[in-house]
Amino acid sequence: xxxxxxxxxxxxxxxxxxxxDFIDDVTLMADYMGSGWAYWSNDRGGWSPTDGSDNETIVAxxxxxxxPRAIAGQPVDYYFEAKSKEFRLVYDEKPGVTGPTEIxxxxxxxxxxxxxxxxxxxxxxxxxxxxx
Length: 132
Description:
Elements: E1 6-10, H1 19-33, E2 36-39, H2 58-63, E3 67-70, E4 73-81, E5 86-93, E6 101-104, E7 125-126
Parallel strand pairs: 1-2, 6-7
Antiparallel strand pairs: 3-6, 4-5
């Protein structure tokens, strides 16, 4: 059908066994489908990324992930595999695009950064560390 898709909302209780794995599975599936997504939570505690005292829960840990914020072309494939911390982005050049490809890498979830690129000279990827 060649149409965009979005997972309108999903959620899980922070204390549920496997909550982190569930979030990782849903977000990875959305990446593979090229879909947007929204996490649902109506209050602090329970299903929220924070508990009643505003401390992060396992939900926040698994929702905070690397993703392409801007792509200078047509995305072909991208995903972030939370367990291995592997991020992959493949895109085709789009004539006339002058902006950079930007990858959001959350500073609060530090991990060793390994970049491997196969881009033409006129393409570039910009990344910078920012506090969340």
